Model the fold of this input.
Amino acid sequence: MTYRLIDLSLPLETGLSEPEPVQIERVDHRQGAFLLTQGSDLHADHFPDGLGLSLERIQLTSHSGTHVDAPLHYGPLSEGKRARSIDEMPLDWFFGLALVLDCRSEASSEVVACDELKHAVFSQGLTLEAGDIVFINTGADSLWGTHEYFTSFRGVSLAATEWLLDQGIKVIGVDSFGFDAPFHKMIQASGQGKNGRALWPCHVLGRSREYCQIERLTNLSMLPTHKKFLVSCFPIKLKGCGAGPSRVVAFLEVDHE
Ligand SMILES: [Zn+2]
Done:
């Protein structure tokens, strides 16, 4: 079988769309030659052309770029047990059949409703099976690289998320900055904090029902809408952390004529 690979990840880079900027300090080949010869009898010029090996020192959060949220992110407990960190999640959650639900809407800037999600499944001729990876395409990635990326997206409703979990889905991905509604909308919905249940409801749901979210996907419009496809979305193995960046890739079967 031959596959066409589609990259569904954003680059990890310094830009306007990260709340805590990714910082990359580059050690070039010349500096690398000095670094590698420190404390030895060698000299930087002993390297061919005086050039050693480069490296980068990076500073980022576990939620920088396209990443997978683990139950530990949502709270200390999940389903009554200690919430699992990203390195403890089963690998088979992150490799398998996936589908994308088209929830791009010119008309709505509200969270994706349960009926809307069910309608997408039906109208796209799909059926959900336990263990499927579900992506929700809202078109929010078009704002990546701007400040609006933080504030102008839909997010997913609690009811829609609960319904997906009811179908046995364990991994749900979105193309927006966050899985829940934008921060300013949640504050408003909470009556300036009086109703705490309006704050990150889908994240908090993970305290009673164990699941993983993928945030900040891109290129979901390049995926087929009427059939499932293979996806790999392994998070990097950050010990004891609540999330991990992931290179999310779809494998589309190429038909041979
Ligand atoms: Zn996150």
User: Anything to note?
Assistant: The chain has a mean pLDDT of 95. Residues 3 and 253 are 5 Å apart (CA to CA). Residues 23-59 form one domain. The chain has two domains: 23-59, 67-253.
